[in-house]
Amino acid sequence: MASTVRVDLDGNEVKAMTICMIGAGGFIGSHLCEKILSETSHKVLAVDVYNDKIKHLLEPQTKQWVERIQFHRINIKHDSRLEGLIKMADLTINLAAICTPADYNTRPLDTIYSNFIDALPVVKYCSENNKRLIHFSTCEVYGKTIGSFLPKDSPLREDPQFYLLSEDASPCIFGPIEKQRWSYACAKQLIERLVYAEGAENGLEFTIVRPFNWIGPRMDFIPGIDGPSEGVPRVLACFSNNLLRGEPLKLVDGGESQRTFVYIKDAIEAVLLMIENPARANGHIFNVGNPHNEVTVKQLAEMMAEVYSKVSGEPALEQPTIDVSSKEFYGEGYDDSDKRIPDMTIINRQLGWNPKTSLWDLLESTLTYQHRTYAEAIKQATAKPVASS
Ligand SMILES: NC(=O)c1ccc[n+]([C@@H]2O[C@H](COP(=O)([O-])OP(=O)(O)OC[C@H]3O[C@@H](n4cnc5c(N)ncnc54)[C@H](O)[C@@H]3O)[C@@H](O)[C@H]2O)c1
Ligand SMILES: O=C(O)[C@H]1O[C@H](OP(=O)(O)OP(=O)(O)OC[C@H]2O[C@@H](n3ccc(=O)[nH]c3=O)[C@H](O)[C@@H]2O)[C@H](O)[C@@H](O)[C@@H]1O
C-alpha cells in the first residue's frame, strides 16, 4: 500500500475515498482493482456476478488489502442492495455491460438491456444521492468514419478531419436497424446522453470514458478452457485461442478493418487520473486509446503469430491466417467499424495523459501471459486418449 500522501495534478492532497465499482470482476475491473489497491489508500466495494478475475485480491493471504476490498455478488438487474452501496461510496464506477460483438447481433435484447436499461438505476441513484459517477461507454459510439462514405480512391480519406474521432465534434454514424451490430453502440450512446442530461439538468458530477480497444492479460476467455467452447470472445482472445491450438487465425471479411490498440496498464493510468482529479475530469467525455498503435486486423494477426512464436518457442504456423465471411463467423446482422483513431486533445489538456506501450511490446507481455496461463490446459484438452489394448 502507498504510505506517502497522494497529490492530484494541481498539488492538492488526495483524500482516501470509497469507490463502488460495478463490473469489478471483469477484464478492466480486475486491473483497476489491482491498481487502486497497490498504489492508493482507497477502498473498493467490488460488485459483480463473477469474481474469478479478482480472486487473487480477495484471498486471505493478500492481507494487506483485505480491509480495502469487499466483494458483493450482485446482479444489478434486480438487487435492492445496489442503492445502499452507492450511498456508502464517494464515487461509483460503472463497468457492467455485455460488450462482445458476437452478442450484439445474436442477443440484441440482452445487449440493449445490459447497456441501457440496467445502467439507468445506477445513474439515478448517483444523481439522487449527489454521488460522482464515472461511466464506461465505448469508442463504438462513433460508429463508422465519415471517410468510409467517400470513394475508395478519394485523397480526402487521408485528411484527418474525415477519420479522426473527436469527443466534441465527430458525429455518431451507425448502420441501418437490421444491422443489429449497432444495438450496443446505440444503447451506449443513449446512456451517455442520459448521463450528460443528468449533469446538465440535475447537477450530476460525471465523467464518461470511451475506451479504444484496451487489451492485455485476463481479457475475455479462451473457448473450451475458461469459457464456452462455442463462445466467440473479442479479437485478442480469438487469435490467442487459435495460436494456442496451432490453428490459422480467422480474418473476418479479409481483416481489412483498422483498430488502434492500447495496453490495459497504460489505460488504467488514465482512469486513476480521472478518479483522483475530479475538478479536471467532471463534465468531460474522454477518448482513451493509443493513436500510434494502428493496424489492420490482418496486420494484428501477422504480428501476433510472430510474437507468439517468439515467446512460446513454437514454430511459426505454415498458414498463419484464413479468410472467413462475417456472416459465417458472426451470423446475420453483423457490421463493422472501419477505422478508429482517437483524438487525444481533451485527455491531454485535462489530465496530461499519454499512452506509452508499443503494440509489439504489449503483445509480447500479453502473449507471454496467455502462453503461461493456457498452453498446458490446451495441451491436456486436445490430447488424444491413449487407446486401451
Ligand atoms: N475492453 C475494452 O477495450 C472496452 C472497450 C470499449 C468499452 N468497454 C467498456 O468497458 C466496460 C468494461 O469492459 P470489459 O472489457 O472489462 O468487459 P468484461 O465483460 O470483462 O467486464 C464486464 C463485467 O461486468 C459484469 N456484469 C455484466 N452485467 C452485470 C450485471 N447485470 N450485474 C453485475 N455485474 C455485471 C460482468 O460479469 C463482467 O465481469 C464495459 O462497459 C464495456 O462496454 C471496454
Ligand atoms: O474494444 C473496444 O474498443 C470496443 O470495440 C469492440 O469491438 P471490436 O473492436 O469490433 O471487437 P473485436 O472483437 O475485438 O474485433 C476487432 C476486429 O477483429 C475482427 N475479428 C475478430 C475476431 C476474429 O477471430 N477475427 C477477426 O477478424 C472483427 O471482425 C473486427 O473487425 C467491442 O465492441 C467492445 O469490447 C468495445 O466496446
TrEMBL record:
Record's keyword terms, sorted: Cell wall biogenesis/degradation, Cytoplasm, Lyase, NAD
E.C. designation(s): 4.1.1.35
Broadest EC class assigned to this enzyme: lyase
Reaction(s) catalysed (UniProt annotation): UDP-alpha-D-glucuronate + H(+) = UDP-alpha-D-xylose + CO2; UDP-alpha-D-glucuronate + H(+) = UDP-alpha-D-apiose + CO2
The keyword NAD is annotated on this UniProt entry: yes
Subcellular location: Cytoplasm
Segments forming domain NAD-dependent epimerase/dehydratase: 19-289
Keyword Lyase: yes
Entry's Gene Ontology BP terms: cell wall organization; UDP-D-apiose biosynthetic process
Recorded GO CC terms: cytoplasm
Stated family: Belongs to the NAD(P)-dependent epimerase/dehydratase family.
Protein name listed in UniProt: UDP-glucuronate decarboxylase
